[in-house]
Amino acid sequence: MRVHAYAAPAAGEPLARTTIERRDVGPADVLIEIEYAGICHSDIHTVNGDWGPQPFPVVPGHEIVGTVREIGSDVTTHRVGDRVGVGCMVNSCGECANCRNGDEQYCLSGMVPTYAGTDRDGTTTQGGYSTHVVVDAGYVLRVPDGIDPAATAPLLCAGITTYSPLRRWGAGPGTRVAVVGLGGLGHMAVKLAHAMGAEVTVLSQSLKKQEDGLRLGADAYFATSDPDTFTQLAGRFDLIVNTVSAAVDVDAYLSLLAVDGALVNVGAPADPLPVNAMSLIGGRRTFAGSMIGGIAETQEMLDFCAEHGLGADVEVIAADRVNEAYERVLASDVRYRFVIDASTLR
Ligand code: NAP
Ligand code: ZN
Known about the structure:
By secondary structure, the chain is α/β, with parallel strands linked by helices. It is built from eleven helices and 17 strands.
């Protein structure tokens, strides 16, 4: 099946309209007509070559919401007409210890990313900036009834990537959580941590978005450009989730942790993040990382968001504005996720 898409032809080049081939619906597959696709900073890192060579042309997009149009003969989990979502992963081995443990994102054979990956049939995956996608039903999530589809798309990456570490490191009543960077991931971290009952502080480059941060659920908001922030907040937080897309001064953020506190990095900058051992040993602190979440956990996150009335704050755009949106994301001028209306790809 030939479908409309938006692709990066080569590293660092503007994205442009194209058509791509989608595989036939196999017995275990679901054909999804895409309604919305979020723009994640990872899409930009990928097409700009920040993470090394890619199999161009690349159709990015791993925050997908759409409607099931066809199912394979073995599929029992989804029906034609269901609203569904697809996140950052479209396959994994399903048999290794990590897959069996519900951590498919850490599959020992390597999970198959939604785009620029090699699927288990040897083909290169192409993502959600497209009108349709064919995905193994095991990697397709149910979108609960009554939640806005455009605001739901970013949950499939920004939502799960922040939900997972917040849960794992125990964000909840009585805990103090800081979120570094108020972009796509950061604004979801604020909403989710607040809904979990934590006391939430935003650490942003400036106070420009302070009003938004407080409206999203933060209890406090500080500018990291002000050196006083780091003296005032020393030793304060149980958990810091760093969502910044560029390298930050890790030691400075570690100094904000209480004893046994954890700084969890979800930002994935091209440059290394050096750490001074003293920043860790003084205070028994943890410096950790986390990548998206497993399939069952992603479903749990979607259900949590439906229950709490949470979605992303989105700016819905036509496909022809993708390159402009990339520029704005790179300039930290996103409030707080661009989402492509896939009907504009036709
Ligand atoms: P985003 O919307 O661009 O947000 C990043 C935020 O970081 C910006 O809004 C800005 O917030 C802050 N920032 C940007 N450049 C900065 C700099 N030079 N110094 C200090 N702060 C800066 O990006 P995103 O889509 O949320 O993604 C964030 C990062 O997470 C990316 O690296 C992405 O690849 C990664 N990611 C990882 C996973 C995972 O599984 N671990 C999943 C998805 C994305 P302020 O304006 O508030 O300072
Ligand atoms: Zn993403």
